[in-house]
Design goal:
Elements (H helix, E strand, L loop, with lengths): L1 E10 L2 E11 L4 E5 L6 H8 L7 E6 L2 E2 L4 H5 L2 E4 L11 H11 L4 H14 L15 H12 L6 E5 L7 H14 L4 E6 L2 H7 L2 E6 L2 E7 H7 L3 E7 L5 H13 L7 E6 L2 E7 L4 H10 L3 E8 L3 H18 L3
Parallel strand pairs: 3-8, 3-9, 6-7, 7-8
Antiparallel strand pairs: 1-2, 1-4, 4-5, 9-10, 11-13, 11-14, 12-13
The structure holds adenosine-5'-triphosphate (ATP).
């Protein structure tokens, strides 16, 4: 549905997106994740035909951009970061108005606005003024407007900014439901957001792609941590410590952190894949009791932060 190769966008002398490759297959929910200023909105503006790439090639729904923009736009629904809202219009009236702006014929407007009202659970407020709705409902009105014409591709730029936790949950459910029949590209700077709705994620920073893969692939790429707390006689402690060090030393680059919590209470931690069985055996053999033992599998968040830290490190290392 989206195929971008090496797309670049400059604002004057500033490069906002640099040589980005992006591949979003049909039926997939792809999250663009990155901190503020990463280039997400600029990427979305290129995909939605609002800005032509300065370099690279971009195809949306099979059409080259910007040459095939009109045909691509006919298959695309877009919810911008600050969705235009017409507070003085009633919800159904607003959708008809948007449909006319899009150049849809009357029948298509009627059919797809009714379907969008249903899909976004807005049928009950179709006659209400947009300005009198809560932020969560207004966001759904924006989404319903993006669904006019029944597009195969939905593009949502930071769609949940400003929603409260319940609105957030409802909105995520709605996005998942819409994803059953469409391809979705959505941006966010919140990793939990992407984790909750996306199948794939593209992590961006300073206009470049740092990582690209399924949520599971990225999660697996983060090493996780082995942690334990042991109650043990003081004279048995050296034997346990050396057994734990030996386990950690088999993992590349893992440094064990051993600390006394209280007398007879030892805490340890080291990065890497799950070694809780081996640690449990060592604790048992040294006569200790495991008060706590386990492996913390990292979320996407730690992978994201790790990538940003790594990027920062390499930029600083590059010197002035
Ligand atoms: P945010 O989450 O803050 O919206 P983003 O990842 O969407 O960030 P962009 O809005 O694409 O990032 O901006 C990328 C960079 O380009 C930023 O440094 C921004 O200041 C700059 N930028 C964006 N639009 C323009 C513009 N019209 N003119 C000049 N610079 C711009």
């Amino acid at each position: 549905m989206i195929q971008a190769t090496g797309i670049t966008k400059r604002y004057g002398r500033f490069t906002a997106v640099q040589g980005l490759d992006l591949e979003v297959p049909d039926g997939v929910v792809c999250g663009l994740l990155g901190p503020n200023g990463a280039g997400k909105t600029t990427t979305i503006r290129m995909v939605t035909g609002m800005l032509p790439p300065d370099e690279g090639t971009l195809r949306v729904a099979g059409h080259p951009m910007p040459a095939g923009r009109r045909r691509a736009l006919a298959r695309l629904g877009y919810l911008p970061e600050s969705a235009p809202s017409y507070p003085e219009m009633r919800v159904a009236e607003y959708l008809r108005f948007r449909g006319r702006i899009l150049g849809l014929d009357r029948g298509t407007i009627r059919r797809t606005s009714d379907a969008a009202l249903d899909a976004c659970d807005l049928a009950g407020v179709a006659g209400r003024l947009v300005g009198q709705l809560s932020k969560g409902f207004r966001q759904r009105v924006g989404l319903a407007a993006a669904l006019l014409g029944d597009p195969a591709l939905l593009v949502l730029d930071e769609p949940t900014v400003g929603l409260d936790p319940r609105q957030l949950r409802d909105f995520r459910r709605l996005v998942r439901r819409l994803a059953e029949e469409r391809t979705i590209l959505l941006s966010s700077h919140i990793m939990q957001e992407i984790e909750a709705v996306a199948d794939r994620v593209v992590i961006m920073h300073r206009g470049r792609k740092l990582a690209d893969g399924t949520i599971d692939e990225l999660r697996r790429a983060a090493p996780g941590r082995n942690i334990g707390r042991v109650s043990i006689e003081v004279d048995r402690r050296p034997a346990l410590e050396s057994a734990l060090r030996a386990i950690a030393s088999q993992i590349d680059g893992a440094e064990i952190d051993l600390a006394t919590v209280s007398q007879g209470d030892l805490r340890f931690e080291f990065a890497g894949p799950d070694r809780s069985r081996e640690c449990g055996r060592a604790i048992h053999e040294s006569g200790g009791v495991a008060v706590e033992l386990g492996h913390e599998s990292p979320g996407l968040e730690s992978r994201f932060l790790e990538l940003l830290d790594h990027e920062r490190g390499s930029q600083e290392g590059a010197g002035p």
